[in-house]
Design goal:
about 400 residues, alpha/beta, Rossmann fold, seven-stranded parallel beta sheet, 15 strands, about 45% helix, about 15% strand
Length: about 400
Protein backbone atom coordinates (compact mmCIF):
# COMPACT_ATOMS: atom_id res chain seq x y z
CA UNK A 1 0.00 0.00 0.00
CA UNK A 2 1.21 3.51 -0.84
CA UNK A 3 2.81 5.26 2.16
CA UNK A 4 1.33 8.44 3.60
CA UNK A 5 2.45 12.03 3.20
CA UNK A 6 2.63 13.29 6.78
CA UNK A 7 1.28 16.82 7.33
CA UNK A 8 2.03 18.06 10.84
CA UNK A 9 0.56 21.22 12.38
CA UNK A 10 -0.48 22.53 15.80
CA UNK A 11 -3.82 23.89 14.53
CA UNK A 12 -6.57 22.06 12.69
CA UNK A 13 -10.38 22.41 12.57
CA UNK A 14 -12.35 23.41 14.48
CA UNK A 15 -9.53 25.98 14.78
CA UNK A 16 -9.59 28.12 11.66
CA UNK A 17 -6.63 30.28 10.70
CA UNK A 18 -4.42 30.73 7.65
CA UNK A 19 -2.09 27.85 8.47
CA UNK A 20 -4.96 25.53 9.37
CA UNK A 21 -6.58 26.31 6.01
CA UNK A 22 -3.29 25.63 4.24
CA UNK A 23 -3.03 22.24 5.95
CA UNK A 24 -6.61 21.36 5.02
CA UNK A 25 -6.00 22.27 1.40
CA UNK A 26 -2.73 20.34 1.26
CA UNK A 27 -4.62 17.27 2.49
CA UNK A 28 -7.61 17.83 0.22
CA UNK A 29 -5.61 18.27 -2.97
CA UNK A 30 -3.17 15.48 -2.19
CA UNK A 31 -6.17 13.20 -1.79
CA UNK A 32 -7.63 14.43 -5.09
CA UNK A 33 -4.31 13.60 -6.77
CA UNK A 34 -4.49 10.02 -5.51
CA UNK A 35 -1.86 10.50 -2.82
CA UNK A 36 -2.46 9.60 0.83
CA UNK A 37 -2.26 12.49 3.32
CA UNK A 38 -2.17 11.90 7.06
CA UNK A 39 -2.54 14.92 9.34
CA UNK A 40 -0.92 14.92 12.78
CA UNK A 41 -2.25 17.54 15.20
CA UNK A 42 -3.15 18.14 18.89
CA UNK A 43 -6.42 16.64 20.05
CA UNK A 44 -9.42 18.99 20.28
CA UNK A 45 -12.62 18.26 22.26
CA UNK A 46 -14.57 19.17 19.13
CA UNK A 47 -13.34 16.57 16.67
CA UNK A 48 -13.72 17.21 12.95
CA UNK A 49 -13.41 14.03 10.92
CA UNK A 50 -12.25 14.65 7.35
CA UNK A 51 -12.07 11.92 4.67
CA UNK A 52 -8.39 11.17 5.41
CA UNK A 53 -6.57 9.96 8.53
CA UNK A 54 -5.91 12.41 11.37
CA UNK A 55 -3.65 11.30 14.23
CA UNK A 56 -4.35 13.35 17.34
CA UNK A 57 -2.33 13.57 20.54
CA UNK A 58 -2.87 14.91 24.06
CA UNK A 59 -3.35 18.67 24.39
CA UNK A 60 -4.49 21.39 26.78
CA UNK A 61 -5.97 24.84 26.04
CA UNK A 62 -3.55 27.77 25.79
CA UNK A 63 -4.31 30.48 28.34
CA UNK A 64 -5.45 33.76 26.74
CA UNK A 65 -5.27 32.29 23.22
CA UNK A 66 -8.61 30.54 22.81
CA UNK A 67 -9.43 28.38 20.88
CA UNK A 68 -5.80 27.31 20.40
CA UNK A 69 -4.39 24.30 22.20
CA UNK A 70 -0.86 23.15 22.92
CA UNK A 71 0.04 19.55 22.37
CA UNK A 72 1.93 17.49 24.94
CA UNK A 73 3.14 14.40 23.08
CA UNK A 74 5.34 13.36 26.02
CA UNK A 75 2.11 12.70 27.92
CA UNK A 76 0.65 10.62 25.10
CA UNK A 77 2.50 7.30 24.83
CA UNK A 78 0.34 5.98 21.99
CA UNK A 79 1.22 8.72 19.47
CA UNK A 80 4.88 7.70 19.30
CA UNK A 81 4.02 4.09 18.48
CA UNK A 82 1.39 5.14 15.93
CA UNK A 83 3.91 7.38 14.16
CA UNK A 84 6.47 4.58 14.02
CA UNK A 85 3.86 2.23 12.57
CA UNK A 86 2.25 4.65 10.09
CA UNK A 87 4.47 4.38 7.04
CA UNK A 88 5.39 7.79 5.61
CA UNK A 89 7.07 8.74 2.33
CA UNK A 90 7.74 12.30 3.47
CA UNK A 91 7.04 14.58 6.46
CA UNK A 92 5.94 18.18 5.96
CA UNK A 93 5.68 20.31 9.13
CA UNK A 94 3.78 23.60 9.19
CA UNK A 95 4.68 24.48 12.79
CA UNK A 96 7.90 24.11 14.83
CA UNK A 97 6.27 23.41 18.18
CA UNK A 98 4.84 20.09 19.42
CA UNK A 99 3.77 18.86 15.98
CA UNK A 100 7.14 19.90 14.56
CA UNK A 101 8.98 17.84 17.15
CA UNK A 102 6.80 14.85 16.32
CA UNK A 103 7.43 15.41 12.62
CA UNK A 104 11.20 15.52 13.12
CA UNK A 105 11.01 12.33 15.20
CA UNK A 106 8.94 10.58 12.52
CA UNK A 107 11.24 11.61 9.68
CA UNK A 108 14.29 10.46 11.61
CA UNK A 109 12.80 7.10 12.61
CA UNK A 110 11.43 6.34 9.15
CA UNK A 111 14.41 7.82 7.28
CA UNK A 112 12.31 10.07 5.04
CA UNK A 113 12.72 13.73 4.01
CA UNK A 114 11.67 16.46 6.45
CA UNK A 115 10.20 19.71 5.04
CA UNK A 116 9.06 22.68 7.12
CA UNK A 117 7.15 25.76 6.01
CA UNK A 118 7.86 28.95 7.95
CA UNK A 119 4.42 30.57 8.24
CA UNK A 120 4.43 32.85 11.30
CA UNK A 121 6.35 35.52 13.18
CA UNK A 122 6.90 33.32 16.20
CA UNK A 123 8.75 35.89 18.30
CA UNK A 124 5.70 38.18 18.31
CA UNK A 125 3.48 35.35 19.57
CA UNK A 126 5.96 34.40 22.26
CA UNK A 127 6.45 37.95 23.50
CA UNK A 128 2.72 38.18 24.08
CA UNK A 129 2.36 34.74 25.62
CA UNK A 130 5.37 35.19 27.95
CA UNK A 131 4.79 38.82 28.84
CA UNK A 132 5.40 38.06 32.53
CA UNK A 133 8.42 35.81 31.91
CA UNK A 134 10.21 37.43 28.92
CA UNK A 135 13.38 35.41 29.54
CA UNK A 136 11.52 32.40 28.13
CA UNK A 137 11.29 33.97 24.67
CA UNK A 138 14.95 33.53 23.73
CA UNK A 139 14.98 29.96 25.06
CA UNK A 140 12.02 28.97 22.89
CA UNK A 141 13.36 30.89 19.89
CA UNK A 142 16.56 28.83 20.09
CA UNK A 143 14.46 25.65 20.05
CA UNK A 144 12.57 26.94 17.01
CA UNK A 145 15.84 27.64 15.23
CA UNK A 146 17.13 24.17 16.18
CA UNK A 147 14.02 22.67 14.59
CA UNK A 148 14.44 24.46 11.27
CA UNK A 149 18.14 23.61 11.22
CA UNK A 150 17.41 19.84 11.27
CA UNK A 151 14.99 20.07 8.33
CA UNK A 152 16.09 18.92 4.89
CA UNK A 153 14.15 21.74 3.21
CA UNK A 154 12.63 24.98 4.52
CA UNK A 155 9.89 26.68 2.52
CA UNK A 156 8.53 30.20 2.86
CA UNK A 157 5.18 31.33 1.38
CA UNK A 158 6.46 34.70 0.13
CA UNK A 159 9.86 36.16 -0.69
CA UNK A 160 9.75 38.91 1.92
CA UNK A 161 9.47 36.30 4.68
CA UNK A 162 13.18 35.61 4.20
CA UNK A 163 14.01 38.78 6.13
CA UNK A 164 12.20 37.46 9.21
CA UNK A 165 13.77 34.00 8.93
CA UNK A 166 17.27 35.46 8.66
CA UNK A 167 16.56 37.80 11.55
CA UNK A 168 15.80 34.73 13.66
CA UNK A 169 19.21 33.32 12.77
CA UNK A 170 18.43 30.68 10.13
CA UNK A 171 21.23 30.53 7.54
CA UNK A 172 20.13 27.59 5.41
CA UNK A 173 18.57 27.52 1.96
CA UNK A 174 15.02 28.83 1.59
CA UNK A 175 12.53 28.00 -1.16
CA UNK A 176 9.48 30.13 -1.95
CA UNK A 177 6.37 27.97 -2.31
CA UNK A 178 3.20 30.03 -2.29
CA UNK A 179 -0.07 29.14 -0.63
CA UNK A 180 -3.18 28.78 -2.74
CA UNK A 181 -6.64 30.25 -2.49
CA UNK A 182 -9.78 28.15 -2.41
CA UNK A 183 -11.99 31.16 -3.24
CA UNK A 184 -10.20 31.85 -6.52
CA UNK A 185 -12.49 29.65 -8.61
CA UNK A 186 -15.86 30.64 -7.11
CA UNK A 187 -16.62 33.30 -9.73
CA UNK A 188 -15.29 34.27 -13.12
CA UNK A 189 -14.02 37.80 -13.63
CA UNK A 190 -17.15 38.56 -15.65
CA UNK A 191 -19.51 37.28 -12.94
CA UNK A 192 -17.73 38.92 -10.01
CA UNK A 193 -19.26 42.45 -10.24
CA UNK A 194 -22.78 41.03 -10.01
CA UNK A 195 -21.70 38.71 -7.16
CA UNK A 196 -20.32 41.68 -5.25
CA UNK A 197 -23.52 43.67 -5.75
CA UNK A 198 -25.65 40.70 -4.68
CA UNK A 199 -23.57 40.17 -1.52
CA UNK A 200 -23.77 43.83 -0.64
CA UNK A 201 -27.55 43.85 -0.96
CA UNK A 202 -27.82 40.56 0.91
CA UNK A 203 -26.09 42.12 3.94
CA UNK A 204 -28.23 45.25 3.70
CA UNK A 205 -25.38 47.67 3.06
CA UNK A 206 -26.77 51.03 1.88
CA UNK A 207 -25.71 52.14 -1.60
CA UNK A 208 -24.06 55.29 -0.27
CA UNK A 209 -22.02 53.59 2.45
CA UNK A 210 -18.48 52.30 2.04
CA UNK A 211 -18.18 48.72 3.24
CA UNK A 212 -15.08 47.84 5.29
CA UNK A 213 -13.86 44.42 6.45
CA UNK A 214 -11.34 42.82 8.79
CA UNK A 215 -10.84 39.04 8.90
CA UNK A 216 -8.34 37.38 11.21
CA UNK A 217 -7.37 36.81 14.81
CA UNK A 218 -8.60 39.66 16.98
CA UNK A 219 -5.24 40.33 18.58
CA UNK A 220 -3.35 43.57 19.10
CA UNK A 221 -0.46 42.38 16.92
CA UNK A 222 -2.74 42.49 13.87
CA UNK A 223 -3.67 46.13 14.44
CA UNK A 224 -7.26 45.49 15.44
CA UNK A 225 -7.39 48.62 17.62
CA UNK A 226 -5.88 50.68 14.80
CA UNK A 227 -8.94 49.66 12.77
CA UNK A 228 -11.28 50.66 15.61
CA UNK A 229 -9.62 54.07 15.98
CA UNK A 230 -9.84 54.56 12.23
CA UNK A 231 -13.59 54.07 12.47
CA UNK A 232 -13.86 56.72 15.18
CA UNK A 233 -12.10 59.22 12.91
CA UNK A 234 -14.31 58.33 9.94
CA UNK A 235 -17.41 58.87 12.05
CA UNK A 236 -16.17 62.30 13.18
CA UNK A 237 -15.63 63.21 9.51
CA UNK A 238 -19.17 62.22 8.57
CA UNK A 239 -18.11 59.29 6.35
CA UNK A 240 -20.96 56.80 5.94
CA UNK A 241 -19.46 53.34 6.45
CA UNK A 242 -20.29 49.81 7.57
CA UNK A 243 -17.60 47.71 9.26
CA UNK A 244 -17.56 43.94 9.65
CA UNK A 245 -15.15 42.13 11.98
CA UNK A 246 -14.74 38.38 11.45
CA UNK A 247 -12.68 36.24 13.81
CA UNK A 248 -11.91 35.91 17.48
CA UNK A 249 -8.99 36.47 19.83
CA UNK A 250 -7.87 37.83 23.18
CA UNK A 251 -8.35 41.50 22.11
CA UNK A 252 -12.03 41.03 21.24
CA UNK A 253 -13.33 42.35 24.62
CA UNK A 254 -11.10 45.43 24.22
CA UNK A 255 -12.46 45.97 20.71
CA UNK A 256 -16.06 45.61 21.86
CA UNK A 257 -15.50 48.08 24.68
CA UNK A 258 -13.97 50.64 22.32
CA UNK A 259 -16.90 50.31 19.91
CA UNK A 260 -19.40 50.85 22.76
CA UNK A 261 -17.55 53.78 24.30
CA UNK A 262 -17.32 55.59 20.99
CA UNK A 263 -20.87 55.02 19.82
CA UNK A 264 -19.93 52.85 16.84
CA UNK A 265 -22.42 50.02 17.47
CA UNK A 266 -24.73 51.03 14.62
CA UNK A 267 -21.80 51.03 12.19
CA UNK A 268 -20.03 47.81 13.24
CA UNK A 269 -20.90 44.13 13.30
CA UNK A 270 -18.74 41.54 15.07
CA UNK A 271 -19.46 38.10 13.60
CA UNK A 272 -17.02 35.82 15.38
CA UNK A 273 -15.51 33.05 13.27
CA UNK A 274 -17.28 32.34 9.98
CA UNK A 275 -16.49 28.72 9.14
CA UNK A 276 -18.65 28.37 6.02
CA UNK A 277 -16.38 29.30 3.14
CA UNK A 278 -19.24 30.37 0.86
CA UNK A 279 -20.53 32.73 3.54
CA UNK A 280 -17.07 34.13 4.17
CA UNK A 281 -16.67 34.70 0.43
CA UNK A 282 -19.83 36.81 0.48
CA UNK A 283 -18.38 39.01 3.23
CA UNK A 284 -15.24 39.53 1.17
CA UNK A 285 -17.35 40.28 -1.91
CA UNK A 286 -19.55 42.80 -0.08
CA UNK A 287 -16.56 44.83 1.08
CA UNK A 288 -15.18 47.80 -0.81
CA UNK A 289 -11.82 47.56 0.92
CA UNK A 290 -10.12 45.16 3.33
CA UNK A 291 -8.38 46.82 6.28
CA UNK A 292 -5.32 44.97 7.55
CA UNK A 293 -2.83 47.17 9.47
CA UNK A 294 -0.69 44.22 10.57
CA UNK A 295 3.09 44.01 10.85
CA UNK A 296 2.64 40.59 12.48
CA UNK A 297 1.76 38.50 9.43
CA UNK A 298 4.21 37.00 6.98
CA UNK A 299 2.08 36.10 3.96
CA UNK A 300 -1.52 36.46 5.14
CA UNK A 301 -4.00 34.33 3.24
CA UNK A 302 -6.77 36.85 3.95
CA UNK A 303 -5.21 39.40 1.58
CA UNK A 304 -5.42 36.90 -1.26
CA UNK A 305 -8.92 35.76 -0.26
CA UNK A 306 -10.13 39.36 -0.41
CA UNK A 307 -8.42 39.78 -3.78
CA UNK A 308 -10.17 36.66 -5.11
CA UNK A 309 -13.46 38.42 -4.44
CA UNK A 310 -12.35 41.65 -6.10
CA UNK A 311 -11.67 43.50 -2.85
CA UNK A 312 -8.38 45.43 -2.53
CA UNK A 313 -6.48 45.67 0.76
CA UNK A 314 -5.12 48.65 2.65
CA UNK A 315 -1.77 47.64 4.20
CA UNK A 316 0.92 49.50 6.15
CA UNK A 317 4.10 50.42 4.30
CA UNK A 318 7.01 48.23 5.40
CA UNK A 319 4.92 45.25 6.52
CA UNK A 320 5.96 41.85 5.19
CA UNK A 321 2.48 41.38 3.73
CA UNK A 322 2.81 44.58 1.68
CA UNK A 323 5.53 43.04 -0.52
CA UNK A 324 2.89 41.86 -3.01
CA UNK A 325 1.06 45.21 -3.17
CA UNK A 326 1.78 47.93 -5.70
CA UNK A 327 0.26 51.08 -4.30
CA UNK A 328 -2.61 52.32 -6.42
CA UNK A 329 -2.38 49.31 -8.74
CA UNK A 330 -3.56 46.20 -6.87
CA UNK A 331 -4.04 47.67 -3.40
CA UNK A 332 -3.28 50.66 -1.22
CA UNK A 333 -0.32 51.34 1.08
CA UNK A 334 -0.24 53.86 3.89
CA UNK A 335 1.28 54.56 7.27
CA UNK A 336 0.29 52.55 10.29
CA UNK A 337 -1.58 55.23 12.25
CA UNK A 338 -5.39 55.48 12.46
CA UNK A 339 -5.18 58.97 10.95
CA UNK A 340 -3.33 57.66 7.90
CA UNK A 341 -5.71 54.73 7.51
CA UNK A 342 -8.72 57.04 7.80
CA UNK A 343 -7.30 59.31 5.10
CA UNK A 344 -7.04 56.40 2.68
CA UNK A 345 -10.56 55.18 3.43
CA UNK A 346 -11.94 58.70 3.02
CA UNK A 347 -10.22 58.96 -0.37
CA UNK A 348 -11.71 55.64 -1.46
CA UNK A 349 -15.16 56.62 -0.16
CA UNK A 350 -15.03 59.76 -2.29
CA UNK A 351 -13.68 57.91 -5.35
CA UNK A 352 -15.61 54.65 -5.38
CA UNK A 353 -14.58 53.72 -8.92
CA UNK A 354 -11.06 53.30 -7.58
CA UNK A 355 -12.13 50.21 -5.63
CA UNK A 356 -13.39 48.28 -8.62
CA UNK A 357 -10.21 48.82 -10.65
CA UNK A 358 -7.93 47.98 -7.71
CA UNK A 359 -10.00 44.93 -6.85
CA UNK A 360 -9.86 43.44 -10.32
CA UNK A 361 -6.10 44.01 -10.53
CA UNK A 362 -5.70 42.44 -7.07
CA UNK A 363 -7.62 39.39 -8.29
CA UNK A 364 -5.45 39.19 -11.40
CA UNK A 365 -2.11 39.45 -9.55
CA UNK A 366 -2.67 37.92 -6.11
CA UNK A 367 -4.83 34.86 -6.57
CA UNK A 368 -3.58 31.40 -7.33
CA UNK A 369 -5.73 28.30 -7.04
CA UNK A 370 -4.81 25.47 -4.70
CA UNK A 371 -5.06 23.14 -7.67
CA UNK A 372 -2.21 25.03 -9.33
CA UNK A 373 -0.16 25.31 -6.13
CA UNK A 374 -0.47 21.63 -5.28
CA UNK A 375 0.64 20.61 -8.75
CA UNK A 376 3.88 22.44 -7.96
CA UNK A 377 4.04 20.97 -4.45
CA UNK A 378 3.54 17.41 -5.71
CA UNK A 379 6.33 17.86 -8.21
CA UNK A 380 8.64 19.24 -5.50
CA UNK A 381 7.74 16.34 -3.19
CA UNK A 382 8.68 13.81 -5.88
CA UNK A 383 12.00 15.53 -6.57
CA UNK A 384 12.83 15.80 -2.85
CA UNK A 385 12.05 12.11 -2.23
CA UNK A 386 14.11 11.03 -5.23
CA UNK A 387 17.06 13.19 -4.18
CA UNK A 388 16.82 12.01 -0.56
CA UNK A 389 16.74 8.34 -1.56
CA UNK A 390 19.65 8.81 -3.94
CA UNK A 391 21.77 10.52 -1.28
CA UNK A 392 20.99 7.85 1.33
CA UNK A 393 21.65 4.96 -1.06
CA UNK A 394 25.12 6.36 -1.57
CA UNK A 395 25.80 7.24 2.07
Amino acid sequence: MQPFTGIFNDSFPPIIDGVSLAVQNYARWLSAAGQRPCVVTPRNPIAVEPPYPVLRYFSLPIANREPYRYGYPKLDFKIWRRLRETRMRLVHCHCPFSSGRLGAYTARKQRVPLIATFHSKFRDDLEHSFEKTPWMVNIIMRRILDFFNVCDHVWIPQGAVEETVREYGFRGKLTVVENGNDLASLYSADDLPMAKLSARRGFGIPDGAISLLFVGQHILEKGIIVVAKTLKILKSQGIDFRMDFIGQGYALPQLEQYIRENGLEDKCTIHGVVTERDQLAKHYAAADVFLFPSFYDNAPLVIREAAAMGTPSVLPVGSTASEVIRDGVNGLLTGATPEQYAAVVKHVAENRDVCAALGMKARETLTRSWDDVMEEVSQRYSEIIEMYNHDHRNS
